[in-house]
Amino acid sequence: MAFRSSNIQEFSCGGGELVNAAYERPYLCNIVGTIYENSSRQALMNILKQDGNDKLCWVSATEQWQPQETNESLKNYQDALLQSDLTLRPAGGNTECYRIYEACSYGSVPVVEDVMTAGSCGNSSVYHNAPLQLLKSMNAPFIFIKNWKELPILEKERTIILQEKIQRRKRLLHWYQYFKAELKVRFINIVESSFLKTNKG
Known about the structure:
By secondary structure, the chain is of the alpha/beta class. The chain has 6 helices and 7 strands; from the N terminus they run βββαβαβαβαβαα. Helix content is 41%, strand content 16%.
C-alpha cells in the first residue's frame, strides 16, 4: 500500500508530543533493553561492536531486566527513539513487541528480527511458522531480517541522503496513523457483530 508524502513536518506521537520529521538525527540506530546471555540480543551487540557501529548508535543495554520504569529511563528511551533513524528490535520472549509500535510513533524505522520464537503465536490455520503476519499483510514499512549478520544494512544506511530519510520517516508515520485507524475499525466491527449476534440469539 502506497502512502502519499505530505508537507507536514510534525506528527503526533504516543506521548501527545510532536515529532519533527524533517531534521537530521544524530544516531544511525538505537538498541535499548536487556541483553540476555546466549541470546540473539547478545549476538546483535557483538556484531555492533565488531563492526564499530556501536559508536554510531544509541546503545543503552542492561544485563538484568528492570521491572520499574523511572522518569529518567523513560526520557532516555524516548530520546533514543527521537534521535535515531533505525530502531533495532531483536526478538525476546516473543517475536513481536510493543516497542516496535513505539518506534513507529517516533518515526524511527523498526529493524525487526523475522523469526519464530518458542510457542505458537506465529501459527494459524492458514500460515505455519509465519511471525508478524498482521504487519506484513498491512505492508509495514519496516526492515525485516532473518539474522543479525545481515547488519551490513547499516553500511547502506550511511549512504542514504537526508531527504530520503525524511521521506521514509514520513511514510512510516503516515502508515502508523493508517494502521491504528484500520485496527480500530476492525475491532469495532468485530465487537458490533458479536453483540448483534448475541442480541439476535
